[in-house]
Design brief:
By secondary structure, the chain is an alpha+beta fold. The protein is built from 10 helices and 21 strands. The structure holds FE2/S2 (inorganic) cluster and fe (ii) ion (FE2).
Length: 397
């Protein structure tokens, strides 16, 4: 694991205080290789696709786990399977676009043809293949997958506990509410953005900064500890926050964009962040999954997927569509400042020392799980989970 990579002592030996994170952990290039092995290809579940993104037979969506390309396909039998995006012959990637619909999947190199269920159904000149060849042995390689409320997660490890155990009940409930509380979802569309920072800086967004960095959050009353923050030992977070939306916001020409039509299953805002790198949000009536794909040590590509419920009235559908990208995403009212701050974090982290958490820290030498809605200390159990996964020693107090 860590043995054959020379890492700086500042990373190998973490500070004794739980609220201090070595800045080198964002900047050290050799960490990415370890993160792939110990986290992305390890005992974690990664959300890849919601059924609403591939609603019809033949619909597919490409994604990555770490650097490994994968794709999900809706089969003719109704099942959604996730495969390695690699031809079973010599390994060329089968899918090179983000999403689409295909009758079958043909590899252009030697024209091997795979069905929507991953079976090899055609291969030119097969009478001249090796004696042990059979089509049955050369289907696409399927990943271990489990679904939660029609959202499909995959894992690279056989040892990962089942999905519900992994999420813990505390996170499953708010996540279910973001995902429509048992109603079907309908995909509204995507926005894609590249953030110029290490992936851990992107997910380290906390409950403290929201109304301080984001003016729109302040205007919507996201503060004051109204609501709760749930944190788990394996690095997941969930915020269930009350919002107080004024009927008129002077900074907006049309305040109806932030109107809360009031899906009854939230107090205003739900944010769920599952380890290592996915964020789910329901701000007012906007339903969003933020799939994130780190691009090595520096840079993370984020695909914002926006949803409505499939039983929405035409009026609510129009409202959700309008609210979606206007509220959250690269130019969203409550998130547009994030890109600038991620770049600043990345710049500042090149200086030596530790990043130090304060808000909500009551004992620097203990990990606390009873955190308030607007505490930044809710991120510390996630950092501890990261430290353990990576095998770094904590210094003695
Ligand atoms: S690598 Fe795909 S057909 Fe040969
Ligand atoms: Fe933010």
């Amino acid at each position: 694991m860590t043995a054959n990579i020379n890492l700086p002592d500042t990373v190998m030996e973490w500070p004794a205080k739980y609220n201090e994170i070595p800045k080198a952990v964002f900047e050290e290039p050799s960490l990415w290789r370890l993160e792939l092995d110990n986290i992305f290809y390890g005992e974690e579940w990664h959300p890849i696709v919601h059924r609403a993104e591939v609603p019809n037979p033949g619909d597919y969506k490409a994604a990555f786990i770490g650097e490994m390309p994968i794709f999900a396909v809706h089969g003719d039998d109704g099942r959604i399977r996730v495969f390695h995006n690699a031809c079973a012959h010599r390994g060329a990637a089968l899918v090179t676009d983000n999403a689409g619909n295909k009758a079958d999947f043909e590899c252009p190199y030697h024209r091997w043809l795979f069905s929507r269920e991953g079976a090899l159904v055609g291969c030119p000149n097969s009478h001249e293949f090796s004696p042990s060849f059979s089509k049955e042995k050369f289907g696409l390689k399927e990943l271990r997958a489990e679904a939660f409320n029609e959202l499909y997660f995959v894992t690279m490890s056989d040892k990962t506990p089942d999905l519900l155990t992994y999420m813990t009940g505390a996170v499953a409930d708010p996540l279910s509410r973001v995902l429509g509380s048992g109603h079907g979802l309908k995909l509204l569309g995507y926005q894609k953005v590249h953030y110029d920072c290490n992936w851990k800086a992107y997910v380290d967004n906390d409950g403290y900064h929201a109304p301080l960095l984001h003016l729109a959050f302040k205007l919507m009353g996201w503060q004051g500890g109204k609501g709760e923050q749930i944190v788990t030992e394996n690095g997941h977070l969930a915020f269930d926050s009350e919002l107080t939306i004024p009927s008129k916001i002077d900074a907006l020409e049309d305040s109806s964009i932030v109107q809360f039509k009031g899906d009854p299953d939230s107090k205003g805002s739900i944010v769920v962040s599952t380890f290592p790198v996915t964020v789910f949000t329901k701000h007012m009536d906007m339903l969003n999954i933020r799939y994130a794909f780190p691009k090595g040590q520096r840079g993370v590509e984020v695909h914002y997927a926006y949803f409505a419920r499939d039983d929405d009235s035409p009026e609510l559908l129009a409202h959700r569509t309008r609210q979606s990208a206007n509220l959250l995403g690269p130019s969203g009212l409550i998130s547009l400042e994030d890109a600038a701050i991620f770049t600043r974090i990345d710049l500042g982290n090149r200086s030596p020392g530790n990043a130090i958490f304060q808000k909500g820290v009551t004992d620097e030498y203990k990990l606390a799980f009873n955190v308030k809605q607007n505490d930044e200390s809710g991120n510390l159990p996630r950092w501890e989970h990261y430290r353990k996964r990576m095998g770094f020693r904590r210094a003695k107090a």
